Each structure stands twice: as C-alpha cells, then as structure tokens.
Fold this sequence. Notes:
The complex is a heterodimer. Chain A is of the alpha/beta class.
Amino acid sequence: MSRQDVEDRTWVSGTPRLWVRHPAGCRQCPGCHHPIIERLIADVVGDLGVEDDTVFITGVGCSTRAFAVMDFDGISTAHGRAPDVGTAIKRTLHGRPVVITIQGDGDCIAIGAGSLLAAVGRAERITVFMANNGNFGTTGGQMAPTTLTGQVTTTTPGGRDNSTGFPMHVPELLATLKGCAYSARGSVHTAANYQRTKKLMKTAVQKQIDDTGFSFVEILSACPPDWRLTPVESLKWIEEHMIPEFPLGEFKNIESIQ
Amino acid sequence: MGERILIQGNEAVCLGAIAAGCLTFFGYPITPQNEITEWFARELIQREGVFIQPHSESGSINMLYGGAATGMRVMTSTSSPGWALMQETMSHMANAELPCVIVLVQRGGPGQGTTQHAQTDYLSATRGGGQGGYKCIILAPASVPENCDLVQMAFYLADKYRNPVVVLTDAIIGQMAEPVEIKPIDFGLLPPKDWAIGGKGYRPDHQRRVIGCTQGQVPTGEYTNYLSLMRALDAKNRQMETEVRFETYMMDDAEVVVVAYGHVARVSKEAVNYARQEGIKVGLFRPITVWPFPYQALRATAESCAVFLAVEDSLGQMVDDVRLGVEGRAPVHFLGMLDRHDPTGAGMLLPGRVLEEIRKLSAEVKV
Ligand SMILES: Cc1ncc(C[n+]2csc(CCOP(=O)(O)OP(=O)(O)O)c2C)c(N)n1
Ligand code: SF4
Ligand SMILES: [Mg+2]
C-alpha cells in the first residue's frame, strides 16, 4: 500500500481546500485547538495562493502529524529544530519556497529556544506559528515555559510558583529583536478571535513573501485533558486566565528592517 | 594529468566537496576543523552557494536535515565535542532517509579534551552515537589526496543509500599538507531524487511530497508501520555492509599484521618499512571503511598469519573490531595513546615505537 492509496482528497464542505484526509491525520483530543490552527494554516496558504511554493514543517508535539494532512510539501523534524530546518530549506533553494512551521510552546521556546532566537537573529525569511497551550500536551501535561503562575501541571503539582520561574512572553520577546519583522498573538476560542487570528497569520506569511524578515504568531490553544477541564470549560479558562497574562494583538509590524 | 597543488587536508575536504557538486555548507567553528568552515564561508560566495554559520552544531546538523530534504548535496564538518551534539539528528536523518556528508576531524577526548589529534571517536562514529541503532558508512582517509577522493565517494554513497555518510579524519590528516590532483570522480549513475521537497508546483506530477523522521509511525512514507520501516532499514544496512574498502601493504608473507587507520596507518606503514629492512615479515592492514569494518578480509588473513597488532591513538576502540574480525584465530595486541612519545596533547605515536612493538612480537612468533 503506497502513500497515495490511503490519501483522500475529496473536498468536504467546511474543510479547507488544501486538506488531505489521511489515516495519520490529526489524532488530537476532543476540544483540542491544534486542528483548528492547522486548518487555519491550510486556509492561509490557500487564500494567499502559495500552495505550489509552500514547505510546511512540524516540530515534535501534538501537531507533529499535521504535515500529513496538508496538500503541500511537508516535513517533520527533531524536537525544537524546525527553525533550523526551515532556514536551510529556504536558503538552499535561494529563497524560493514559503516556509511555515507549526510548533508547540515546549517545542518552540523550551528545547527550541536557541534555534528560534538564532533564526530571528539572522532575520530568516520564515514564519513560525506557536501553539501555546501552557504545557507539554503530548507527554501528559508537564510544565512549559508558558505555564501560568499557580497553574497545576504534573511537574508543578502544587501549582507553578516563583521557584520555577514565570511565564514567557514569546512574541513580545521576539519583537525586541532586529531580525523580527512581525510578531503577534491570537486565539481561536471564539469565532471573532478565530477570524482575527486568521488575519494575523496571513499577515505573517505575507511578511515572508514580501522578504521583510522573520515573522511569528503565537496562538493560544486549549488542551482540555491535560488541563483537567471539559472543552467548554477550557474556552472559559483561556478567556479568564490566559488572556490576562498573554494579551492578544500585534507587537511588531514593520515594512522593512532598518 | 591535472595540476598538482600543495594543500592542507582540511582544504582537500573542501575541494573534494566542490568536485562532488556540493555548494551548500553549514558549520560551527571548532578546532581543528576551522579551515573547512572558513574556506566555505570564503569560497561559496564566489560560487553562488549557500553558507550558514548556525548557533551550534545542533543547528548545523538540523540545517543539514533541511538542506538534504531539498535534494541538494549538503555537508557540515566538526570536531569531537560538536560531533556529540549532532548525534540526535543523525539518527533522525537515518529514519527520514536523507543523504548528507559529515566530516569529523577528531581531536582528543573526553570532554573538552585537547584541540590536537587523537582517534577517540571511533566507537561513537562506528556504533551510531545517537539513539535507535542506525548505521552510517564511515570512511577514514589516511592522506590529503584521500581526503579529497573519499569526500567525493561519501556524497555518492550518501545518495546511493539515502543515508548520512561520515568522513572520519583527525587533526593530523586535517592540518598536514601534501600535493593533490583535484579531479572529479565519476562513481556512476544515481536514481533521481524524486522524493525531495521544495514546493509541489516545481515537479511534473504536481503532487506534494512529505519527508519525516517519523517514518513507520506516521504512515506518510513507504512504511505503514514500525516494523516495515525496521525491515527496510535492516535491508539497507545489509546492502551498506557490502561497501567494504581496505588497503593491504606487504601482506603476502606477513607473520605480524599491523592494523591501523587514518594518520596512525601512515605512521605504521613507516614502521613496517623499517621492520622489513630488518627482515621481519610484517604487513599493514588498513581499513578505509571503518564501518562496515573489513571483518571477512581480516579473518582470511588470520588463517595464515601469527599475530595482530592494533595501533590507534586512543585507549582502545578499533581493537575491538580487530578482535571481532580475527575471532580468536590469532592473538591481538594493542598499542595506543599511552605509548605516545610525549605525555602532552602534542605527543604522537611515532614509527619508532611501533617498530619496537613489531620487533617484540616477531621475536615471540619465532620462539
Ligand atoms: C529530545 C526530545 N526530548 C523530549 C521529547 C519528548 N517530548 C515529545 S513532545 C514534548 C513536549 C511537547 O510540548 P509542546 O511543544 O508544548 O507541544 P504540545 O504537545 O503541548 O502541543 C516532549 C518533551 C522528545 N520527543 N524529544
Ligand atoms: S494532549 Fe492536549 S495538545 Fe495534545 S492533542 Fe490532546 S488536547 Fe491537544
Ligand atoms: Mg504545549
């Protein structure tokens, strides 16, 4: 059985044009926001009409399998290394492909912090999307650099206190670096935010297409089982706990790096 | 005959890569391989190639992963501490079946060790220093011209097997200068890289391609489950095992066989020459591939000779492979790092010391 045999490209109403139904597809929990973010990526690539040029890169986490469901070129990488891989793909092909990564918060700013910051420092023309669910979802809900103060995880069983540090604000941090052309934070927990986040993501990819610099969007993302909440309670938790710590909006949007 | 130029071993690596069509290099500075990184930084601009100095050797190897995925010939070089940082993604490349060339200019370990020559990464290289039990062909040049030729062969073998290939040199091979004739070597046809990614609009069938170090788990590649991947990798490893290369010197009537690779093989060859002048029946067996190790050829040798002497600039790594090859048919002796002429990092195994050992073993054979 070859890859092509198990892929189903018949379009289903309500799904993105560039969506491949695949037995390896998503496999995420009910109420998880990863699949929503992945659909947004497929939509953004489709809307910008760059599917012929796009290389989509996944890190290690609950979005690893996303490369299986996009109808454009894809590659999975080692934990945290998507910016290195994306850099090389972009530059080896002399800037031609549109390079997009999806990474978890652990992948992106715990193990992958060095790769991410180095890519921003070099002003690589790639776009990184980071799903911030405040924990390591895949491995069972341990603390991430984004875990909120007081948040209970399996490695902060009494709630995160100051001894384990403070939540990291990644788009705010990247905005301070010269190589960064665009950084923003969105959420998909309401229909209005979904639409707003889609715009942020589209702008980020457009920055890459315009050859401006590095672009980044963090997306707040529910992880109901590891949060020990129902999917509906998770939406409320994003609203009441995450957004006060992680404000939504753009932190940097420049036309050229001076 | 092309022009012969006097160059350093590290530069020969670079010219070999260019001769093989590699115009993409990623490298993080580390002694004693800095000449390679600096050479590419300088020369690739003029050749419209791609040079990136990443934030670490982990960056180098993951850039190699991305570069290889586009189907281009890509290379990095490093020395021992940087080699350690590359292991995780070497394993990922074996899973993802991506070809690349890694040049390891060994220096003394463990830890920061020394910045000078040694052969202390043999086991880490030949046994797959990373997770999961993958295999890579490891080529060990013993001269500056061979650096140039084996780098070219490394690119060919990497593409042939879609797997990383390592060129294992050391500070001496890297820093010494010898005359070299740079000539592109034709190793034959390779299959097209129709698996490469870079945008589906650029290939005739307009179909997407996916590459993953998740093969066998995410059924996007050839393999629908873990064991089908492992079966395929096993078959590939067996094929790679046929790529054995070695050199023998004065072996026809040898009673004592010295086994050595890299710069220590050069030292040992000189010792063999001196010993022959004294009428001692001694030969040199030099593995060129240290994985696959030439076990069978060594075993055949063990049928007719009396004693083996493994010489290497470590506390004893390759000697294990010599014992595996000889399989108890003859005694295997060892001469290593502690027999250097000087106790500092600059100390070397010199021909005189090897000769002394050959004389001793030859006398024992006669008894
Ligand atoms: C080198 C390495 N260390 C650890 C792991 C185990 N691991 C897999 S996913 C993951 C964390 C994922 O967290 P995040 O990136 O936030 O993704 P999420 O699952 O939350 O979306 C870890 C630690 C690994 N695969 N590789
Ligand atoms: S564990 Fe969390 S992040 Fe992972 S699939 Fe489930 S809900 Fe999503
Ligand atoms: Mg997470």
